[in-house]
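thought: fold this chain, then report.
action: predict
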Amino acid sequence: MLKHPKGSKKLLNAWALYDWANSVYPLVISTAIFPIFYGSVTDDYITFQGIEFKNTALISYVTAFAFLILVNLTPLLSGIADYTGRKKLFMKFFCYSGSAACIMLYWFDIENLETSLMYYFIALIGFWASLVFYNSYLPEIAFKEQQDKISAKGYAMGYIGSVILLLINILMVNMPEKFFINQLNGDAQINAMKISFIMVGVWWFLFSQYSFYYLPGKKYYDRIKDDEIEHFVGANVFFSGYSKLKEVWHQFKKLDTTKTFLVSFFIYSIALQTVILVATYFGEAEINWGGDDEKRLGLIVSILLIQLVAIIGSVLSARISNKIGNINTLIILNFAWALLCVFGYFVESTTEFYIAAGFVGLVMGAIQSLSRSTYSKLLPKSNNNTSYFSFYDVTQKTSIVIGMTLFATVDQITGSMRNSILLFFIFFVAGALVLIKLNKKKNVV
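observation:
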């Protein structure tokens, strides 16, 4: 039995709180403090494994490689989770390993670049792998009519929680003496950034405990196993995840609407996820801030602006979709992103960057939340939701591998990230066109 029935406020809030717990990673590590820290401790060109890389291209390649590993790893784990009912165990493992790696980033050292990037690599793996199992809970803990709202609430809680921690980190970086950080050896602001990595790991670990307490575990899934699950238990469990992924693909061939949505999602995610991951690196390298202190403060303010506006975006998207439908809303959001890519190519001044940041936040929160809930609505009824969300996750991660590799290669060859940003205009427009085609079908959400 669930501690609370499906659709109950307690269970829904417990699920959404994991967004509060884990969202400090994408904000502080992926988006805010770590990119600024990385740009401060590395030169424009650095040597890794005997090869000279542009520093932004190197971190993009490492990110792409991590997602390539995830593409191959998550089907295996999600399949096992479905058959054994241990999805919470896997979610815990990646949560804990990711939070521990965040703490280890305190010891990031350019002299030991390989080991330091490994900490970054493990933290990234932990965050994204845990989301596979987290997202798969959505149709199990919420009824269809609740899913848009609770998905948006999760994102909103994540934005609020991560902003709270970021504000604390901002104070630490800009006023290290108030936190006695200036008494440590070395640059006080750099040390403040390192301490923020520890705080991310601790925050992620501690707040996840509430979610883990209420989310169903193995005993619950033992009770709801159906004949389909039992049929696969006797198979080779190691490969069963890939077999299940293949089966899901065959099922999608019969679900034309879901398949078409995934095609669109794959196309626009190539651009969407990459832009989100590299936005701060772009601001750090391409915008004229006037000085290092002005750059650090300006970037943090921009990121804070994005997060605050994203809260509004995630809530508004749920309301707008209720009036005009999910697909129509996603079409509008894709064209908005396409226009932002064109604008971003020409951004040079700090004022222009702040304007771009505000609009990015608005459409970022909207499109992420609505994509997740739209997919959830299009799924057939099944107890194997982890495998369905694994397919969604693999689609997203494969798009990130392609997007980050394209971005890094153009950046490495041309020496500028602007050309990569402009390239992503094509993917947003293409994604919107597929959604327009989908919208002509019947029974679309």
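thought: worth noting. The longest strand covers residues 45-48.
final: tokens above.
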